[in-house]
């Protein structure tokens, strides 16, 4: 059914007003509109009320009788039929009917993909906003690219067979079949049925079709793809170009979860870098798009487009298995030479000669596997440096003691961003809060700030995240009220990030003592071991609200009492705990419990003032030296031999 956009009525939905506004649209795309500026910026989108079949005649005003052709409403998830006679008033009132119609019309959405495009006369900023309608599911982090062109995409393809031959550990060979073996790919589906059948049209991607063809990233589909999914673009850091991302949630939901990425923990990454003096940094050019995909597998990476769908011929950015494949491939290239963070390669050396030798080996591996790399920023490729920025961290290895801090450019963007302003004002969208909170987690890891100091912020983030996960249709653009306590803690962290202090690497000298802490349902105990004997200890009984607390919280209380009362010597303090939850919370500096975070924050602040670094370790309950003293045994006279606790 061919449709011509002619003189029509448009209606604003999802915003504070639904006053009809007339818009005149010619076939050549030019338009004249009576559209108030305040309504252009409102929360919602324009909805088409009546398309006309070519050559058809208008009958009536469309408000009390049926039109000659079906009437559709532009909404998230594909075309939606409006009420009788082209009315759109039922869109917000009858959510269940709307959702049912959406499911029934999923099969014919592809044939009507023209309706999923914004009319030429509607600005991209207006059309990209998301209506607050039931049934809308929008991924967090989506931002309109404002018509930016795609970033330069390489046409180079990695020799994955040669890369697998270099894999001495075999971790990359485990996931290589997901790129080259259609049988192994089909076996990864949860239900065992890889027939697919999903089609979600993309919006505004036709302008990138020629670019995708020219670089070999995608090709026109000759038959119906197994999965034709929605593609979109997000701005890159330069602000002038965009990157292509595929919303592969339909495919991800149908497949089993990927194995571990083998990505190092950020703190371990930083600690390993600071053991060296020199480094060479580079990153893969359009790294995901350098991995070829077998033609029989590319049918699962379809892009729903108007006119003709396309198939990705390379690793799909948005597919849950893609980061695992890319990271394991990168680990092969830097094995015994340095570290990799997805597409960032860091070749390390304790001396300048060692670093240059490692760079030469890395270059040979990259050339053998045909991996195209480039220098980061203005650096010359293969240049060895002592001060550089990598994965958002600025390293200074030339200092007397190696140190690091946040990338100053990133810190400035996070501190002064619009999302931060909105969150601190108390009213921000869920998307804005998620972006700011993600930056907060990243900053606390790099600056070694325990997250337990921000218990209210963590608690609110947990509640909001749980609500979004449990919701059948989470709307990330809804406005949420951020509690004052969470805003105060975020403001304190913002001050730390603005100062962006250097963090000195390395582990301090061991204190030579071991702290043993334990708790039972009614009592707690802590012992300090030094030079093969117990030199001090404390014990007590839980009273008040603590008496009814969860055993994990009681174990945390026992640990805090031991740190505050027994640990005084500066340095690395070894701690032995038989509760894995407490060990994990102390190691990462935060807990999922608000109450536990408050207790942990107290002990970590004391340790910081005394210049103590807590090093927790787990022991079985049978080896816990403090256990008998939580079950009625009195403390021995100190100093006491180790056998005195048994």
Walkthrough of the structure:
The protein is α+β, with helices and mostly antiparallel strands. The chain is built from 21 helices and 30 strands. The strands form 8 sheets. Strands 9, 10, 11, 12, 14 and 15 form a 6-stranded mixed beta sheet that branches. The chain has a 6-stranded mixed beta sheet with strand order 29-28-25-26-27-30. Strands 4-3-2-5 form a 4-stranded antiparallel beta sheet, with no helix packed on it. The longest helix has 17 residues, at 352-368. It is globular. It starts with a strand and ends in a 5-residue tail after the last strand. Residues 1-144 have low confidence and may be disordered.
């Amino acid at each position: 059914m061919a449709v011509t956009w002619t003189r029509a009525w448009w209606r604003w939905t999802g915003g504070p007003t639904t006053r009809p506004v007339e818009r005149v649209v010619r076939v050549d795309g030019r338009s004249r509109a009576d559209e108030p500026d305040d309504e252009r910026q409102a929360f919602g989108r324009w909805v088409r009320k009546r398309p006309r079949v070519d050559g058809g005649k208008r009958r009536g005003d469309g408000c009390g009788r049926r039109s000659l052709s079906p009437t559709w409403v532009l909404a998230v998830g594909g075309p939606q039929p409006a009420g009788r006679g082209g009315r759109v008033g039922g869109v917000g009132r009858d959510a269940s009917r709307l959702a049912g119609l959406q499911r029934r019309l999923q099969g014919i959405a592809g044939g009507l993909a023209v309706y999923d495009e914004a009319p030429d006369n509607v600005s991209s900023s207006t059309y990209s906003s998301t209506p607050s309608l039931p049934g809308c599911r929008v991924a967090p982090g989506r931002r309109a690219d404002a018509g930016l062109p795609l970033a330069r995409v390489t046409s180079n393809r990695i020799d994955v067979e040669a890369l697998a031959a270099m894999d001495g550990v075999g971790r990359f060979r485990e996931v290589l079949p997901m790129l080259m073996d259609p049988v192994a790919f089909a076996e990864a589906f949860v239900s065992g049925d890889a027939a697919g059948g999903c089609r979600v049209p993309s919006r505004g991607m036709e302008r990138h079709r020629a670019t995708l063809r020219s670089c070999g990233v995608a090709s026109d589909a000759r038959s119906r793809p197994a999965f034709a999914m929605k593609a979109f673009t997000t701005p890159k850091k330069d602000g002038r170009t965009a990157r292509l991302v595929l919303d592969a949630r339909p495919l991800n939901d149908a497949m089993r979860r990927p194995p571990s990425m083998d990505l190092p923990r950020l703190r371990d990454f930083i600690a390993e870098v600071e053991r060296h003096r020199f480094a060479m940094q580079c990153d893969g050019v359009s790294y995901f798009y350098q991995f070829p995909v077998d033609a029989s597998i590319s049918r699962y990476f379809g892009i729903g487009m108007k006119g003709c769908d396309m198939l990705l011929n390379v690793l799909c950015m948005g597919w849950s298995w893609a980061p695992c494949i890319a990271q394991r491939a990168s680990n092969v290239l830097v094995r015994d030479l340095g570290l990799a963070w997805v597409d960032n390669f860091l070749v390390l050396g304790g001396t300048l000669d060692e670093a240059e030798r490692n760079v030469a080996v890395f270059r040979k591996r990259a050339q053998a596997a045909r991996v195209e790399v480039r220098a980061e920023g203005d650096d010359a490729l293969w240049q060895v440096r002592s001060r550089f920025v990598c994965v958002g961290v600025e390293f200074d290895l030339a200092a007397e003691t190696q140190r690091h801090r946040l990338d100053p450019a990133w810190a400035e963007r996070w501190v002064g961003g619009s999302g931060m302003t909105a969150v601190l004002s108390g009213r921000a969208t869920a998307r804005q809060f998620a972006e700011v909170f993600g930056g907060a987690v990243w900053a606390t890891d790099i600056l070694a700030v325990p997250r337990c100091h921000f218990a209210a912020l963590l608690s609110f983030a947990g509640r909001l995240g749980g609500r979004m996960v449990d919701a059948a249709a989470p709307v990330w653009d809804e406005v949420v009220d951020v509690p004052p306590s969470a805003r105060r803690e975020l403001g304190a962290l913002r001050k730390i990030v603005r100062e962006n202090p250097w963090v000195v690497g390395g582990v301090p000298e061991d204190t030579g003592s071991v702290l043993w802490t334990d708790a039972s349902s009614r009592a707690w105990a802590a012992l300090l071991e030094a030079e093969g004997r117990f030199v001090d200890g404390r014990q007590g009984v839980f009273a008040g609200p603590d008496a009814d607390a969860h055993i994990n919280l009681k174990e945390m209380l026992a640990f805090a009492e031991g740190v505050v009362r027994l640990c005084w010597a500066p340095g690395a303090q070894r701690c032995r705990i038989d509760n894995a939850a407490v060990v994990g919370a102390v190691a990462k500096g935060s807990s999922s419990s608000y109450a536990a975070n408050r207790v942990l924050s107290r002990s970590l602040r004391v340790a910081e003032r005394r210049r103590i670094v807590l090093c927790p370790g787990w022991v079985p309950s049978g080896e816990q030296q403090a256990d008998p003293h939580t079950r009625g045994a009195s403390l021995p006279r100190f100093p006491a031999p180790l056998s005195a606790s048994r």
